[in-house]
Design a protein that fits this description.
By secondary structure, the protein is α+β, with helices and mostly antiparallel strands. The chain has 3 domains: 116 residues, DnaJ domain (Helix Hairpins, Orthogonal Bundle); 66 residues, HSP40/DNAj peptide-binding domain (Sandwich); 77 residues, HSP40/DNAj peptide-binding domain, CATH 2.60.260. It has 8 helices and 11 strands. The strands form 4 sheets. A 4-stranded mixed sheet has the order 6-7-11-10. It has a 3-stranded mixed sheet with strand order 1-5-4. Strands 2-3 form a two-stranded antiparallel ribbon. 17% of the residues are buried.
């Protein structure tokens, strides 16, 4: 398999920052996404390559290995172990510890060519590559736990997304990364969530915040009104002489707490007084009388 330069795949330099990598990935992923390029095999191939590059370069540890070992980055630890063994052997034989290009190739030749590369003639087992993926969800989609099928490396993975997942949070799906070599364990899949909030509620962890318009008459005299929560309406009793900007708390009407079944944060409502407009002559007269009384 030909060597793939992940930096060239994303169109960035080796000095690119984490922010640059994320920006380049999102731009290319949108351009070549299968949903936007139906029945386009070239776009599908590029989309897979972009995801593969991002999985490596967005992980600081994997990026460090890739920078140091190129196409052999997944076996960096095994190479270091093999190099230490050769250094010990050379020291025992009285040879210098410097390595030539041929030495480098010989070590990898033994590691990948099926020859004995460990003590006792056993093949070295390599752990599979960790995969990284970003999953975009709407805020309403993480209000309740739900199942989702993901396609990673041409394999469908069925996962359950817990309620209360936060924007930017990463979870690990053990054993669903790259396949191990020579019987080694599979890598893991790391999923980072990007939560899009298009609701009228502002979220801060498991608490929600919103603003409710309150008419002048209800604010002055009090009364009942129906207000929206994230999962339905509730009746709220307004106290007489309620002031503009007053904040009230509805306990347990916020967002689910992550992995704490049945527990919710609170909903904070701020009243915004709505002044009446287009007054009739009779209304103006009544307000004038009220003004004189005050």
């Amino acid at each position: 398999m030909a060597f793939i330069d992940y930096y060239k795949t994303l169109g960035i330099s080796k000095t690119a920052s984490d922010k640059d990598i994320k920006k380049a990935y999102r731009k290319l992923a949108r351009k070549y996404h299968p949903d936007l390029n139906p029945n386009d095999k070239d776009a599908e191939k590029k989309f897979k390559a972009i995801n593969e590059a991002n999985e490596v370069l967005s992980n600081p540890e994997n990026r460090k290995k890739f920078d140091a070992y190129g196409e052999h980055w997944q076996n960096a630890e095994a190479f270091e172990q093999a190099k230490q063994q050769q250094q010990q052997q050379r020291a025992y034989q009285g040879q210098a510890g410097n390595y030539s290009e041929k030495d480098f190739e010989d070590i990898f030749g033994n590691m990948f060519g099926g020859q004995a590369s460990g003590r006792g003639g056993r093949e070295v087992r390599f752990r599979g590559q960790d995969f990284n993926a970003e999953l975009q969800l709407a805020l309403k989609e993480v209000y309740q736990p739900h199942k989702r099928t993901l396609t990673v490396n041409n394999k469908n993975i069925r996962i359950t997304i817990p309620a209360g997942v936060e924007n930017g949070q990463t979870i690990k799906i053990k054993g669903h990364g790259g396949k191990g070599v020579n019987g080694g364990p599979n890598g893991d899949l790391y999923i980072q969530f990007s939560i899009q909030n298009h609701s009228k509620f502002k979220r801060d962890k498991d608490n929600l915040y919103t603003t409710v318009e309150l008419d002048l008459y209800t604010a002055m005299l009090g009364g009942d009104m129906m207000v929206d929560t994230f999962n339905g309406k509730v009746k709220l009793t307004i106290k007489p002489e309620t002031q503009n900007g007053l904040k009230v708390k509805l306990k347990g009407k916020g967002f689910p707490k992550y992995k704490k079944e049945g527990q919710f944060g609170d909903l904070y409502i701020t009243y915004q007084l709505k002044t009446p407009t287009h007054l009739t002559e009779k209304e103006k007269e009544l307000f004038t009388q009220l003004q004189k009384l005050r």
